[in-house]
Amino acid sequence: xxxxxxxxxxxxxxxxxxxxxxxxxxxxxxxxxxxxxxxxxxxxxxxxxxxxxxxxxxxxxxxxxxxxxxxxxxxxxxxxxxxxxxxxxxxxxxxxxxxxxxxxxxxxxxxxxxxxxxxxxxxxxxxxxxxxxxxxxxxxxxxxxxxxxxxxxxxxxxxxxxxxxxxxxxxxxxxxxxxxxxxxxxxxxxxxxxxxxxxxxxxxxxxxxxxxxxxxxxxxxx
Length: 222
Hints:
Layout: H1 12-18, E1 21-24, E2 27-31, H2 44-60, H3 70-84, H4 88-102, H5 104-108, H6 110-121, H7 130-137, H8 141-146, H9 159-184, H10 190-196, H11 198-201, H12 203-207, H13 211-219
Antiparallel strand pairs: 1-2
Helix pairs in contact: 2-3, 3-4, 3-6
């Protein structure tokens, strides 16, 4: 049986006028008439929030377990929400709604966990750096590649090494794309080509002559 969905308080008066929903990550956080940064095309903050949610599901399933490092997920998500929602009241409501989905146990410990994180972000206009977010979430390069992460760096490699690895990965993916295009056009694989090549089949041995003699006869006019 599927667990009941978390409900979010809705201003039905404003909803009836506009019906506009504010969605950050994959959670509908609030009902609001205004258009926020997260609704204006691409939002790096919203992208960061989606990747945090993907990481949570990859590591823990649906929600964050009660562990010592659990609040780091909330902290990274909070900084992304603050960038998208500069209004204090809306930010507070959005963070509590997000926790209701991904860390419901934190709502019970609101004063201990959520309030310090809110105070930390009150006067911050910028998101956490990719490096800092990676350190908090302990995101390693292998996991970052597996999840196709773009807004959080890897904590186990230096920034310079990460650039080198990213270039190598891009070149590998480009080769794979070109290979797929060639296969779609009917080109045979290298293994099949080599298996059918003269150096593998050696037809001169079947004729009982040397390789040089076989090629010389092939060049003669018929």
